[in-house]
Structures are given as C-alpha cells and as structure tokens.
Amino acid sequence: MHSPLISPSLLAGDHAHLATSVSVVEDLGLPWLHCDIMDGHFVPNLSFGPETLAALRRAGSKLFFDTHLMLSRPQDYIEPFARAGANNISIHIEPDYDHAATLARIRSLGCQCGIVLNPGTPARAIAPLLDLVDLVLVMTVQPGFGGQAFRRDMLPKLTEISTWRRERGLKFRLEVDGGIDLDTAQECHAQGADTFVAGTSFFKATDKAAFAATIAAM
Ligand code: DX5
Ligand code: ZN
Predict the structure, then answer these.
(1) Each residue of 66-99: pLDDT tens digit?
(2) Does ligand 1 lie within 6 Å of residue 4's CB atom?
(3) Which residue in 129, 124, 192, 202 sits closest to 155, CA to CA?
(4) How far is CA 136 from CA 10, 27, 105, 153, in A?
(5) Rounded to whole angstroms, how far apart are CA atoms 139 and 151?
(6) Could you confirm whether 36 is annotated as catalytic?
(7) 4 vs 84: CA distance, rounded Å
(8) Rounded to whole angstroms, what are the CA distances from 77 to 48, 73, 92, 156?
(9) How many angstroms separate the CA atoms of 179 and 127, rounded?
(10) For the chain, does the N or the C end have fewer beta carbons within 10 angstroms?
(11) What CATH number is given to the structural domain containing 117?
C-alpha cells in the first residue's frame, strides 16, 4: 500500500498566474501536480495543452506532472505530453482505441501510465489492463469541471479495485478525482485509495499546509 499522497489540481489554480499556483504547491514541499487536459469533445470543456506544461517546466517546476488526458483521441497526444514534461500520463478507458498499446507507448517514452474510469464505467472494464499500469484513476465526478459534488456511489468501485490489487499482488496507485476534500478523501482512503486529486478544496483552503498534512497523516 502506498502512503497517502495529494495531487493538487492546477485546474483550480489561477489561470492568469499558473506559475504562481504551481509555486504554492512547490513551496509546501508537495511532490505532485495534477494537470487536467480537456478537448471540448470527450468532456464539454477546454483547459490547457502540452505547451502549458512545457512552459511550467521552463519556468523551473520540478513537480511530478500527473497528467489526466480527457480526450477522445488520447493516442494522438502521447508524444507531445511526454515531450512537454509529463511524468505520468493517464488515459480514459471509454473511447475506442488500443488502450494496451497506448499504455505501452507512454511507458516507452519514459513516463508512468494510468487508466481512468468515468463514474458510469464499471470496474471490470479495466480489469484486463491492471498489470500494465502504474495508476488507476477512479473519477468521483463526471469529468469536465472542477467544484462538483463527490459521488459517494463510487466507493464500492474503489473497494473492488483495491481488492483486485491485493489479490493479484499489484502495486498501482489508486487515485480519486472530483469533489475530494478532507472528509471524502478519508472515505476513499478507507476503501483503498492512496492518491487524492484536490482542486477546489486545496486552492480554497486557508491553511494549505495543514490540509496537505491531514491527507499525508491518513
Ligand atoms: C474534473 C477534473 C478534476 C478537477 C477536480 O474533470 O478531472 O481533476 O480538477 O476538481 P475538484 O477537486 O474541484 O472537484
Ligand atoms: Zn483530473
């Protein structure tokens, strides 16, 4: 079991001053940054692209870029994100493409790889891929926007996936994304989640150090 890790979501940062939001994470000594990439097609919203990640790297960020591709054709964007400095690239299971080959390509470019499920997608959809990934991301909201309410009905999916992880002796991180705050993180942790994307709750927290410390101490 991995120790609990927060992955603050840049989507909830200040888009006019993204480097400042990144510094907030860095100055707290937190290692990960969640980067949400949206194409206006797989999800009904747009965010930022590889150039934004590359610019943050050029500005000096050493954070682990935990990159969540919400794209209808993620297979077309692996190289640009790897080149831009992504450390992990997570791709959704829902679109129809060669998931295993795309995961292998992410790995071959020196990145870690993850598979993501929408709330409506059952755990069994990713079962054949579990040997191939460093991370499984269970969406706890319908992706597309920050600030939505946590879907408590996703908790059994976490239990199911963490049980498979234990039974099959696998080591992937189990990440949750959407509506995560200190209470919902705790509920997910109780079902085996170890990696917590926090957008709104983190960037709105008045004491971010205490927020992060509470996650780390779960
Ligand atoms: C939603 C994104 C999330 C988002 C979470 O589509 O994948 O990463 O930033 O935001 P909060 O934490 O505000 O629910
Ligand atoms: Zn995300």
Answers:
(1) 999 999 999 999 999 999 999 999 999 999 999 9
(2) no
(3) 192
(4) 20, 27, 17, 17
(5) 9
(6) yes
(7) 27
(8) 13, 8, 13, 32
(9) 25
(10) N
(11) 3.20.20.70
Locus of tokens 């080149």: 83
* Residue closest to 202 by CA, chosen among 5, 6, 4: 6
CB 45 less than 6 A from any atom of ligand 1: no
The answer to whether the CB of 140 is under 6 A from ligand 1 is no
For a ligand 1 pocket test, name from 38, 141, 142, 176 the mutation site with the most ligand atoms within 8 angstroms of its C-beta.
141
Beta bridge pairs of residue 137: 116, 175
**Domain count for the chain:** 1
Domain that holds residue 77: 5-216
The per-residue pLDDT for range 32-71, each reduced to its tens digit, is 999 999 999 999 999 999 999 999 999 999 999 999 999 9
Cβ–ligand 1 contact at 178 (below 6 Å): yes
Indicate the pTM of the whole model: 0.99
Is there a catalytic annotation at residue 134? Answer: no
- Give the number of residues written for the chain: 218
* Helix locations, 76-154, DSSP H: 78-84, 99-108
